[in-house]
Structure formats: structure tokens, C-alpha cells
Amino acid sequence: MTTAPTLTAPSATAPTLSDLHALDAAAMPSIFTLPEDVALLRDEVREFARTRLRPRVLDNDLAAADDFDWDIVRAGHELGLLRLTIPKELGGRGVGVLGVAVAMEELAAVCASTALIFGASMLGATAVLFSGDPQLQARFIPPFLGDEPVLACNAVTEEVAGCDLLIPAHAADAAEVMTARRDGDHFVLNGIKRFITNGKVAQWATVFANLEGYPGATGMTVFVVPLDNPGVVRGAVADKMGYRACLGTTLEFHDVRVPEENIVFGEANGWGYLNVQSNQARTIVAAISTGVARGAFDIAKDWAGERVQGGKPLSEQQFTARKLAEMAAKVEASRLLYLQAAYQAENMLPAPVFGAAVAKLFADRAAIEVAEEAMSIVGARGYCREYGLEKLVRESFGARIYEGTPEVLALAITDSLYGRRQ
Q1: Which of 8, 240, 256, 371 could pair with 296 as two cysteines, CB 3.0-4.6 Å apart?
Q2: 173 or 408: which carries more pLDDT confidence?
Q3: Measured between alpha carbons, how far is 299 from 374 in angstroms, rounded to an integer?
Q4: Looking at residue 308, what is its pLDDT?
Q5: pTM
Q6: CATH 2.40.110.10 domain range(s) in the chain
Q7: Is-contact 226 203, C-beta < 8 A?
Q8: Does pLDDT of 331 surpass 50?
């Protein structure tokens, strides 16, 4: 009788799918070779995920919905993950969209929740960094450079305005319920934001609100709001199916006064920024989905190489080999699409909406398909929590919801094809 192998983390000796890229890098076309600094960052984050993150994944996933692992955030902060996108002249690492996306894939291959914690914080800080406003940067960026970790969040989604903010090609057709009313040299914010990642633990938020009297989202304005301001209420944490280690919560704003100097990009200029931000966010989510798919693939690959049935490993049996090949192809294609989208965004190339939407649409679907196939290959052990695969299956579904559902992405893609948006 053949003893069934134990299902563990991917082998440290056998090459993973990502390792294959480094086996013959010198012979590969330059378009597929990461810049040296990005490759070094990838290796740093991969080692962090393997040694520091993986041992905590199961406990964090099984913890209560409102538990938060500040220790792993602190460890990531020591690595520099919270200052990746901060320019070097401000004390950060000066990493662009490409490097961030690659780092998020590495984290997500082990724990998508952790990738989302760091990714959402970077997204929240992006507006201040993009603004080029010295006073905003002097007030809100230094905490990211201190000894203790500080998180930000990005408050866009509302009870009745999630996809309604992303579907329309024009601001007048978009739904924005949260309001901002001028009162002297301040604005008074009222409204409720939903499912805000890091909302429970962030120090401040980038908040999108519509100026009173403007139709649709034509008055959308971006505010930086410290979450200890009077009138801000952090609501209950959502008890989610996946991404359980990152906290998504409601943020309520009841007559919250914000000084006008906390406006980013000026009054009624938030719609354009939201679309730029959305392209970057979709690219990052595509990278996270790629990481989830890769994590599931590596588990299935190791299992199929060790599990013997009918006298030979599953990996040598035609039916399983075909599955593994198709899974590998989906991971590879997902990676190439998000790398292309990241390159477009970082270099301000044409058609960023199209590239980011295509990357996310494909990678999100690939993550679900690869995770499900991995479960079918591994079988009963994969269905048990202690092996980690069922977590990846749960998390594979999450990315299809945030930063654009498949339907929203399809509209963005076809709008681009017909010239309705770029």
C-alpha cells in the first residue's frame, strides 16, 4: 500500500511556477525580464511571505472577524512595504505600479488578505502622493516612515454607489450620495461608506464626496480625513467568506468638518482622479488574483508530483497532466496581462482603462478556475482548513467583486473598444 503524502506548503526545493522565470533569464526577451530593482523586490517579498507570513496564515484566517494582526503589519513595515510608493526624496522606496503589482502577487500567493492590507493602504496614500502638494505630503506622509506602522484607507464605495461610480463614462451619470457642503474655510461631510478595507484600523482616509448642488458625481471631490475627527464613526467589521485577515468596515460621517486645505486636486476634480486610481487598483487586484491562482497551482503541483495512484504519480497521468498544464497557462497569462497593464499605467501609455480591465477580468476568472481545479486534484485534504487550499478557493471569489465586477469590466472594455472612454 502506498502512503498518501502529507499536504504542506509548496516545496522549498522543487521550482515553483514563478521560479521557472529565473532559470534562463539571460536567454529570455527583455520584454519578459523584470527590471533588476523589481526582481530584487520580488525576491525580498517572496522570502518574507515564506518565512514570516506563512506561519501565521491559518491562525489569522480562523480568528474572529474583527481580530487584526498588527504583528505581521509591523513585520511588513520593517521590510518597507508601507513606504513602497513614497518617492525616495520623501524617504520612501520610490517603487512604481509595476513593482507594487509584483510584490502583491508574492504576498497573495501565501495570503491575499495581507496583500490587500498593504495594497489598500498604498491606494489610500496615492492621492496625497499624486497631488504634489507639499503641505499635504508634509502632514500625512511622515507617519508611514516612522518606527510603528500606520495604515491609510480609500473610502469610495457606498450603500447605493459602488459599481454606479465605475460604470458610467461621464461624471453626470454616476451615483455619489455622500455630500460635502462648504462652511467658510471648511467642508462638512455627511454620508456612509461601506466595505472599506482598513477602515477599522487606518489613521486616515482618502474620502470621495460630491459637492452639494452638483448632479451625479460632477462635484466629486477628494478629501483627506483623519479618522479621529469628531463625527467619524467606525462601524462593525464585515464577517467575510474570504480575505478574513483584512478588516472591511463601514465608515459613517456625521457633520464631519474638514479644512479646505485637506482637498486633493481642487474642488470638483475627483472624477478624473477616481478613474486614474481605478486603473491602478484593477492592475493591483489582477496581481493579487494571479497570486491566489499561483498559490493554488503550487499546492496542486506538489501533490500531483507526490501522490501515487495506479503505480505512478498523478502528474504523469494524462488527465491530471492536462489539468496542470492548463492551470499553468492561466497563471502565466494572468501575470503577463497585469505586467502589461502595470507598464501602461507606470509609463502613462494610451488605453490604460482597457489594459487594466482586461487584466483584472482574466485574472479574476483564472483564480477561480485554477483554485477549483486544484481542489479537484488534491481532493479531500484540500477541503480541510489546515492545508490552506480551501482558503485560496474562498479568496479566489473575492476579487470578482471589488474594483469592478466582471460585468463592470466588460462595459469598460467595450467602451474602450468603441472609443467611449480611453
Answers
A1: 371
A2: 408
A3: 7
A4: 78
A5: 0.90
A6: 152-271
A7: yes
A8: yes
